[in-house]
Amino acid sequence: MLYIFMLGYDVDFGHMEAVSLISAPKYPEKQVGYIVTSCLLNENHDFLRLAINTVRNDIIGRNETFQCLALTMVGNIGGRDFAESLAPDVQKLLISSSCRPLVRKKAALCLLRLFRKNPDVVNVDGWVDRMAQLLDERDLGVLTSSMSLLVALVSNNHEAYWSCLPKCVKTLERLARNQDIPQEYTYYGIPSPWLQVKTMRALQYFPTIEDPNTRRSLFEVLQRILMGTDVVKNVNKNNASHAVLFEALALVMHLDAEKEMMSQCVALLGKFIAVREPNIRYLGLENMTRMLLVTDVQDIIKRHQAQIITSLKDPDISIRRRALDLLYGMCDITNAKDIVEELLQYLSTAEFAMREELSLKAAILAEKFAPDLSWYVDVILQLIDKAGDFVSDDIWFRVVQFVTNNEDLQPYAAAKAREYLDKPAIHETMVKVSAYLLGEFGHLLARRPGCSPKELFSIIHEKLPTVLSSTIPILLSTYAKILMHTQPPDPELQNQIWGIFNKYESCIDAEIQQRAVEYHALSRKGASLMDILAEMPKFPERQSALIKKAEDTEVDTAEQSAIKLRAQQQMSSALVVTDQRPANGTPSGIQLSLVKVPSMSINEDQNMAEQGLSHENGILSKVDPQTPSADLLGDLLGPLAIEGPPGTDVQSQQNIVSGLENVPNTVEAAAIVPVEEQTNSVQPIGSIAERFHALCLKDSGVLYEDPYIQIGIKAEWRAHQGRVVLFLGNKNTSPLVSVHAIILPPSHLKIELSLVPDTIPPRAQVQCPLEVVNLRPSRDVAVLDFSYKFGNNMVNAKLRLPAVLNKFLHPISVSGDEFFPQWRSLSGPPLKLQEVVRGVRPMPLLDMANLFNSFRLMVSPGLDPNPNNLVASTTYYSESTRPMLCLIRIETDPADRTQLRMTVASGDPTLTFELKEFIKEQLVSIPTALRSPMAATPAPPIPQPTSPAAALTDPGAMLAGLL
Amino acid sequence: MGIRFILMVNKQGQTRLAQYYEYLTLEERRALEGEIVRKCLARTEQQCSFVEHRNYKIVYRRYASLFFLVGVDNDENELAILEFIHLLVETMDRHFGNVCELDIMFHLEKAHFMLEEMVMNGCIVETSKSNILTPIQLMEKA
To answer: A411: left (phi > 0), else alpha (psi -120 to 50), else beta?
Structure first.
């Protein structure tokens, strides 16, 4: 049956049989049962539950072989259920002196499995001494298994296992000296290489060794291994001894030993990477790469550069990969040129599987260590030429970014691009880069032969039929730019290009269509709009997307593609925005470039207006933004225009209005709208106090809103800590500037606000995370002093942050048995406070219970025999106190619901007081937001008492009271 | 974790023995085996015995027509695993007397028992041949 399974068929028909075999009394049957079960079932399989009991019986039974079988099975597939029911038994077995090593070694690994799967279930607290005992074991089998267990334990928490360290060293010594090792554990004359390896692995988990004696003896052993290993005839012996040797090398690296030993290691590795034996060469390269990370031996390693480069041409892909990694790691300014050139050369012969990685690495190295930028451009263009398919978009985006940011580079890059275009067949990516570069900087070449706009156009246009639809937009932009740079305009070229735009205006791809329409309209409008197509502004310096990508290559592919996608999006939005934007608004435009939505909407507005008005050209030309009437407009809209991209914003509004109303004096109409907006801008939408109260009960919602900004909040609370994220959303099409946010925390809260950006781009949302730590109980509220400037108006709002007492409560339900002893043990003030509260907003008991629950005070119904009373409990977390149980009892008077008696008890006097006051506040002045749902309940309407009503209707007074 | 899985595959790419120490569904196993086998069988004698595959390394060794493939974590000591394969083969040799593919095919359960004794939960438990073989002899007696 196992055979069937192995061939890949589903054999669930036999599962039950296998499980029932386990309980068979005969050894062979049991054996088969166990093995089949552990092969076929996974840890969550239902049948396993059936077997737990049998397994347990076997484990605690007397028969050693049965014990072994059971332990092995649990070790292989043990899940949570097993861990819960068997862990203590297994632990007992492991340390009991009565059973044979055979059983104990299995128990060790079984425990390891259980520990790994469910660290919470297996209690390892008292294990330090026992581990130490185990390591004294003479039997190598047990030692091997316990060493594995130790590795797991130590990697989890090395602090606790210091005492095991000397034992490990001793074991290693014993092995290395070949003292007292039974014959059957020696493998080709080497005492159990696996145990040696394991021991050294365990030692690598300890940071350093302080005890000089231990250290010395360890070094002696290592020295012995390093020196004593040489190549022998027998393959197996050779392998085994080298296995030990490499592990020793790793340990030496980890210990960061003396220089001398280190250089010895490097020398050894250098020897290894030159040997014929491929395995050893592979490992030599790999370890050298590791060594680069650990220490400053680069110089020594560099001596082997030639050898490593030869390995790059090895017939074996594994070795080539390692060599590539090593070259990548050892590259720095001094040898970058050689290495990158070597990589480029290799690129043309490398197989497909490696090309992408290779080109990415070459690109990163070229960027990181480029001695001069023209070299960098050369390298990347070569790269695209040689392995276009494997050059991701990020790489060419990056080169474009570089060229745009460095003026001296532009003519050079353009010329290079032109050269590559001459080749008969070039890669798509190359078309993209060249077209882009020539569009931007082609005019810089105009004087050179073969570089007139017309020639540029024709050579680029040749490529058009061969490219994919994703490249066409770039080509269209290039045409528009060529057209723009052709001064004086060349009618023939113009007609040609317009013809192309016309053709693509009906293209099915929305992006191409939009571009064609836009460029067509723009170019027809003549010179006044030409500066829209001016050179792109410099890119903001940002971390190379490539390096980020390389860091993430180890991460799974989904994430990686997401990153790529994001980078692309950023790029493309930057392209769109900056293309359309007038060049005179440079600084604010950089913020714009991250947001795609607003720029698109502007474009569309513009388009719509333009299309609508193109036949009324006469009118439009009169309403040109540069006409005298614009002065008036400029005065009125001055504040607006400063931040926004000036021309576009004003113009688009204007155009919309004119398009809709078709009134000649659109200027006034357009001017009025924003002015009105400005006058009433300061008024917040909705009551701040109400929003605050609502947020006291919820964890997310809107904290503040006015016509320009919306501040949302989202909070997570865990014990005494909280993480709050403020979402600052700009509702406008122009950025908000001078944004300031200061937190005025009360003394009991520690609040850290991350940096709030000075400007919020249009229609964008900025997130500002806040870390909140509650130090001690208090009712004070943190205040966020928030201000920003819109136009000339300075808007300032002081907002209370809903980091209130109840956020640090955690509802806990208690039974009567737990409640009453606690309640009685906390007797009298200051731990237990009682107060009669009058002027309570009357409400039915059920509503009060709901209110309490929403404040994270868990109401326990039925604890108090009197139905008019309410008992609630909760736990309070703060940094200074341990989790504190709080108990609350409310006694209401059915005759007069405006008063009640409240008793609060907790283990901390301040907490009791603060909690009592907090509840009182909540009961007396329940926010209006809560009242509306209550009115809907069938409860009989009760006349409102005067005093709390006054407090309610006057939010100012309430604010003053709370602040 | 150490060892993730152990496979024995013949020259034609048919799996002869498979033991996994982490749970994979049938489809995943099939796909994985296919990929690995294709990768490893294509390699020549002169190339090294380690192949990187997805997030682990395959250490493999060829004995006549049978390939032994062991999938391990990236930080495992490769040579040690390579020798462990040899130890496994030697152990089988001792039991079957010059082991061959057919031995493993027809005594699959015994091969599994041996493996069980040597590796548990991805860690090497026992390396002494006589210790490994005791339970099996015990079974034969029974």
So the answer is: alpha
Chain B closest-CA separation from residue A337 CA (Å): 29
Side chain identity at B119, as an amino acid letter?
V
Residue A105 and residue B126: Cβ atoms within 8 Å? Answer: yes
Peptide bond into A582 cis (omega under 30): no
CA distance A931 to chain B (A): 55
- Segment A615-619 shows an average pLDDT of 36
Residue type, A845: L
Q: Grade residue B142 by pLDDT with cuts at 50, 70 and 90.
A: low
User: Which residues of chain A are within 8 Å of residue B29 when distances are taken between CB atoms?
Assistant: 8
Q: Crossing angle of helices A545-552/A393-405, nearest 10°?
A: 150
Rounded CA-CA distance A377/A395 in Å is 11
Which of A195, A236, A318 is the closest to B83 by Cβ? A236
pLDDT at A58 over 60: yes
pLDDT tens digits for range A843-878:
777 788 887 787 788 887 777 777 778 888 888 887
d(CA B77, CA B74): 9
Residue A713's pLDDT is 84
Cβ pair B19:A39 closer than 8 A: yes
State whether B52 and A3 contact (CB < 8 Å). no
Prediction ipTM score? 0.81
- Can you give the C-alpha Rg of chain A in angstroms? 38
Query: Which token pair is A682?
Result: 């300061």
Q: Which long-range contacts link A316-319 to residues 24+ away (Cβ below 8 Å)?
A: A316/A278, A316/A282, A316/B43, A316/B46, A316/B47, A316/B48, A317/A351, A317/A353, A317/A354, A318/A282, A318/B47, A318/B48, A318/B50, A318/B51, A318/B52, A319/A278, A319/A281, A319/A282, A319/A285, A319/B47, A319/B48
Does position A763 have pLDDT exceeding 80, yes or no? no
Alpha carbon distance B6, A566 (integer Å)? 40
Interface contact B30-A76, CB threshold 8 A: no
Work out the percent of chain B whose per-residue pLDDT is above 90.
0
Place of tokens 């931007």: A440
**Is the CB of A72 less than 8 angstroms away from the CB of B120?**
yes
Could you tell me how many CB contacts below 8 A there are between chain A and chain B? 152
- On the question of pLDDT at A524 being above 60, the answer is yes
Contact (Cβ atoms closer than 8 angstroms) between residue B11 and residue B68: no
Pick from B44, B84, B131: CB nearest A141:
B131
Compute the C-alpha angle A869/A874/A878, nearest 5°.
145
Whether B108 sits inside 8 A of A2 (CB atoms) is yes
Q: Which tens digits make up the pLDDT trace of A550-576?
A: 444 433 333 344 444 444 444 433 333
Instruction: Give the HSE-up count for residue A933: Cα atoms under 13 Å, Cβ half-sphere.
Output: 10
| Gap from A168 CA to chain B (nearest CA, Å) | 17
Read off the pLDDT band of A653 (50, 70, 90): very low
List Cα–Cα distances, A638 to A633, A736, A761, A852, A866, in angstroms. 8, 15, 18, 53, 70
| CA distance, residue B9 to nearest chain A CA (Å) | 11
Q: Give the model's pLDDT for residue A123.
A: 61
User: What are the pLDDT digits (tens) for B84-131?
Assistant: 888 888 888 888 888 888 888 777 778 887 887 788 777 777 777 777
Q: How open is the CA angle A744-A745-A749, to the nearest 5 degrees?
A: 170
* CA pair distance A231, A239, nearest whole angstrom: 9
Residues from chain B that touch A113, judged by Cβ atoms under 8 A, are 121
Single pTM value for the model:
0.52
**Torsion, Cα of A734, A736, A737, A743 (10° steps):** -170
Structure tokens at B119: 């590796």
Which one of A145, A184, A239 would you mutate to disrupt binding with B, by most B Cβ within 10 Å of its Cβ?
A: A239
What secondary structure, in 3-state letters, does A5-30 show?
Answer: HHCCCCCHHHHHHHHHHHCCCCHHHH
Q: What is the pLDDT of residue A870?
A: 80
